[in-house]
Amino acid sequence: MIYMKKIPRELYICALTGATCAFLSLLLPAHIRACLFCAMLCFAAYIIFAVYRKKEYLRYRIAAAAAVMVCALLYILFPSVLSLYAFRITATAVYITETYALLKDTADVWKKTFLDDKMTYLFRIVLACALLFAGCMLAVWEVYPQKFLAHMETMPFEEGHNDRYAGRYPVQYGIPYQSTYPEGTFDLILPEGETAGTVIWVHGGGHMPQDKYTGLNRTLITNMLEEGYAAVLTDYTAAAVYPSMNVQLEELISFLRENSSSLGINASHFILAGTDCGADTVLQYVMSACVPAYAEKNGLSASLAPSDIICVYLCSAMYRPQYGAGTDLILSDYTAAAQLRRYYEVIDLQSSSRLKDLDVIPYVCGSLPPVFFSEGNTGTYTVQAHAFEDALKQTDVIYEAHIFDSVRDKRELVYMSFDCQNNHFASAVNGAFLAFLRDIQKP
Questions:
Q1: Taking the chain, what is the end-to-end CA distance rounded to the nearest angstrom?
Q2: What is the CATH classification number for the domain harbouring 177?
Q3: Side-chain half-sphere of 382: how many Cα atoms within 13 Å?
Q4: Which helix (H) or strand (E) holds 200?
């Protein structure tokens, strides 16, 4: 083992800081490049201090730090799992080596000092081991995010299969729409009398298995039924990968249009609604239907014409997927990043060409149907919602935005607080959407 007789505190700090950057690149997977760039600066300082001090084993220290920097640079230029792992392993090795060298050089401290002094060095050993263990676990979660998400899967919500919704509207359960993926079914709720159109609800859940009734915006569905719209509550395969949700939504719409007579629905007027990842899919579908360049860029297809879509309802949609881990809360960021990496099969979100191509902001144009969208202010995509609104302002698209403000509303609101819960914020949004729908249909 390489060590020095006396190790300058600066070298130890540089090694620790570099290892911290490696650790942060695990915790902040959407910002891996930024973390690695900071690590390169830290190890450059490490080399400068080593040269300035002119201590023994100088060449080995410079070589080790240079190896870390090369691995970081390789990932920045050519992102890959191999270069990322190489960086983390070398950075952690340097940190552990420096920790061992410091403990070895100060062996006399173990004999001459009190217990509390010894504990400081013991703490460093524990920290090194903890860093190594956490790095291994988080690395596994990053490459195989389904292992991290497995314990977060929710249990299906049992609706009870009553034959009437809200005690008033007839319901047909588990209608298959001939999907190429499993779980391709939907429930159909019919209004009284002739249908004015059809609202399709795509539930959220972060691409994790959930039931379509879990988190259902019941007030929204009830309002649409009262307005004469048939409600389609769809299931999809949450365990599949992109573009499974887009494909299944297209399969569902094609099935509804082909079987509209037997189902008793109006398949020429659609309201597309969704929350969370369901809203992402709805938005991507609408962009594909209205902007051919977007559909071609992402290899997506949509059979609906823009004139077939009455309006779009989006709750906590992700307009810029490459920034999908920017929710302003560390735990939410990590969870969102794991969900996105699993579904879209990417590692570094911000460098992913696939996610950049799905960014809807550059494609917002006047051909979009009326859009109603809402967003909270905590642990969600508030910044993206503002960017989407700014883009819509540059067009003549009819839209209404409800983006809650933490200062004005004097409380924190994640998206579920006003989408599916029973409070005055939810009532305000649902009431606003009903008024919005009536306004855009006025002759």
A1: 82
A2: 3.40.50.1820
A3: 14
A4: strand 197-202
